[in-house]
Specification:
By secondary structure, this protein is of the alpha/beta class. Helices cover 30% and strands 17% of the residues.
Length: 687
């Protein structure tokens, strides 16, 4: 009789708020089997997405990089030769030393993002950056705009425990396709529907997997959510649902705000949003008449040029109505503010040097091409190490990114699991582990747990973890921080102790630790995170970012510049595909099979007007470039709005350019972020 396979506990490392608690089947020292959700975790509750359930397909994909490679032909030629780890690391170290000697340390730009959300494997590169004085990186691509909009009012990333959705009588899912991107949200929504008869409203500009589960789908034009929020609050004041006593105690300028909202009628909002007055009235009254109303805010709502303003406007709604007093009420987007980690060991914060420049990582294209707005008075970027991200596919203004990576005077080392679009422009490629092949520590924005994720199997081939690579490189660069001499588990254990969390032995015994705070903290019963304890209706945008002076002082519809025009009459949004996670999983056979092909959703009337047939190749474009996709005529689409789900491999499109060739890299007001859902384009039939 065969022995049963061993079971190990872990957490998903990918860039998703759910950070699911996992059970991983171990077949042998080199092989994992089935991956499932841990039913003992009250948020994951045994449910995970199909992508990670099929994780063995990714881990054991025959296309995994397994040995260091050195470029032998021109950049982009895909000509590489295998080399040893010693030669590879020495080549990188020598390149960094030579670049520093010629231009100073700011010429080196360590570049990292959300390929792994583990604290050690993502943070070790910061330790190297801080000790060596290399150029800093400001991370804005994913959460820059929603963070700014949220913090403008609350001052802290916290909200009602996401498990409270199960205690709500009305749930508004606003700006996230949770069925496809945060499946655990739907677990708690389903509990509310089953146990309390809760109603679900989904606010999203296009029909998707989540809208199909809703009792009501509200589809405003992209970038008009602020107007909708203002109209809801106008109705609250008009019909006596505003909680004046709550606002007097907990808000900064309630009287001024009430007066401001006088003109923000449903009729005003209808013209802006494309919704009917009756839709706006129905939505508002359902919310206003339900005490246990829970708003689950997504990242997608922020990815417009006016995204920060829109997010802030939405967050004002439960403050105007006082919907914070009972379980199952309030608004939630991220719980990152509850974690009190001391990052000094992981990131080398004790070695931070003053005056080192910072470049917004979403501006990688312009920065690599010498844009002085990014480089300032510092040197050009002439050396990089890239971990956990694929900017040649996911960064805006993709052609500029590729042109920058093609520079002959730029040395690039890419540490990756697969031969990505970015890796194809590298001088040195290093094979990277997946999360089942290394140790790490995780926190989550989508719930309240921290997790320990142990190494479960041996690294595939000769791959090494981010932490190990950075430590090897640090040694040759003569970096002295003690973190470079410690194993990942040693860093984890010491960090937990320094942060007043259970130590590694305790955490590994329980698999996860709940960091939830009291009801009063999660619901701001003791006030908001400002000296006067009052929520900011009037946040003072001019103090938040360099473009803050452009934004309206109070919540409003702000018509950001560079909208649609006669030459670019369509608004393109690029939400995630269910079976991809940005460019991760877009090379996995089962994910590709399920997604089928890159499509562009278009309204039937727009299709007729532009002579477009369903299933035919069409071209969309703007000043940044153009791309071909397959037309998908959808009645759930909005007039004038095009939807392209997912970051497909660049090679999936004619011409070899991906969807982000169209997206602008402009610095969005007030202080950065990427407007992935705010791209004006033209469209034509490619036949």
């Amino acid at each position: 009789m065969n022995k049963p396979n061993k079971i190990h506990y872990s957490a998903c490392a990918h860039d998703c708020p759910s950070t699911c608690a996992l059970i991983v089947e171990k077949i042998d020292e080199k092989t994992i089997g089935r991956v499932s959700g841990n039913p003992d975790n009250s948020y994951t509750a045994g449910v995970i997405c199909a992508k990670v359930a099929r994780y063995s397909e990714r881990t054991h994909n025959p296309d995994r990089l397994s040995t260091p490679l050195k470029r032998t032909g021109p950049k982009g030629s895909n000509k590489y030769a295998q080399i040893s780890w010693d030669e590879a690391i020495k080549t990188v170290a020598d390149a960094f030393k030579a670049a520093t000697e010629k231009h100073g340390p700011e010429t080196v730009w360590p570049y990292m993002y959300g390929g792994t959300m583990g604290l050690v494997q993502s943070g070790s590169i910061e330790r190297l950056r801080n000790e060596m004085g290399y150029t800093n990186m400001r991370s804005t691509t994913c959460g820059g705009l929603v963070d700014t909009g949220w913090l403008a009012g609350f001052g802290r990333r916290i909200g009602p425990d996401p498990r409270e959705m199960a205690e709500a009588d009305l749930i508004i899912i606003w700006g996230t396709n949770a069925v496809s991107t945060q499946v655990n949200v739907m677990t708690h929504v389903s509990r509310a529907k089953k146990n309390r008869g809760a109603k679900v409203i989904v606010i999203d500009p296009y029909a998707n997997s989540t809208t199909k589960t809703a009792d009501m789908h509200v589809a405003p034009r992209p970038g008009t959510d602020g107007a909708l929020a203002c109209a809801i609050m106008h109705i609250a004041f008009r019909d006596g649902f505003a909680d004046h006593e709550y606002m007097k105690k907990y808000a900064d300028v309630p009287d001024e705000f009430e007066n401001h909202l006088t003109s923000k009628t449903p009729q005003w909002a209808a013209k802006i949003t494309g919704l009917s007055v009756s839709e706006i009235e129905k939505l508002a009254l359902l919310y206003l008449k339900t005490e246990r109303s829970y708003i689950r805010l997504g990242y997608g709502v922020s990815r417009c040029r006016n995204g920060a303003v829109n997010v802030h406007a939405i967050t004002c709604i439960p403050v105007v109505t006082g919907k914070w007093k009972v379980p199952g009420s309030g608004i939630f987007f991220n719980s990152g503010g509850i974690y009190h980690f001391d990052y000094s060991l992981i990131e080398g914060l004790d070695l931070v040097k003053k005056g080192v420049r910072t470049i917004d990582h979403s501006r990688i294209g312009p920065a690599l091409l010498g844009d002085l707005d990014d480089l300032g008075d510092g040197p050009p970027i002439t050396a990089m190490i890239v971990q956990g991200t694929n900017p040649a596919a996911i960064a805006p203004e993709q052609q500029k990114v590729i042109n920058g990576l093609m520079r002959d005077d730029l040395f690039v080392c890419v540490h990756e699991q697969f031969m990505t679009e970015t890796a194809r422009f590298a001088d040195i490629i290093l094979p990277a582990t997946t999360f089942v092949e290394h140790d790490d520590l995780y926190k989550s924005g989508g719930h309240t747990f921290i997790h320990y994720g142990p190494q479960i199997i041996d690294p595939v081939g000769d791959s090494k973890s981010n932490h190990d690579v950075i430590c090897k490189l640090a040694k040759l660069l003569d970096a002295k921080h003690p973190g470079f001499l410690m194993s990942a588990n040693e860093v984890i254990d010491k960090t937990l102790k320094m942060s007043d969390f259970p130590d590694l032995k305790s955490l590994s015994a329980t698999n996860f630790h709940d960091c939830a705070e009291s009801f009063d903290k999660h619901h701001f019963i003791d006030g908001y995170n400002w000296p006067d304890k009052k929520f900011r209706f009037k946040p003072g945008w001019e103090n938040i970012g360099p473009r803050g002076h452009e934004l309206p002082q109070l919540p409003d519809h702000w018509e950001a510049p560079e909208g649609q025009d006669n030459d670019h009459p369509f608004k393109l949004i690029t939400p995630p595909a269910r079976n991809f996670l940005n460019s991760t999983f877009n090379n996995t056979p089962s994910s590709l099979k399920r997604e089928e092909r890159p499509t562009l959703q278009i309204h039937p009337e727009d299709a007729v007007k532009n002579n477009i047939d369903d299933g035919k190749i069409i071209t969309i474009g703007n000043k940044n470039g153009q791309i071909d996709l397959f037309a998908k005529i959808v009645r759930g689409a909005k007039l004038g709005v095009l939807v392209a789900e997912g970051v497909w491999p660049n090679a999936s499109h004619n011409g070899g350019q991906g969807i982000n060739v169209l997206v602008s890299a402009e610095v969005v007001a007030p202080n950065g972020g990427v407007a992935y859902h705010d791209t004006a384009v033209w469209i034509k039939n490619s036949a």
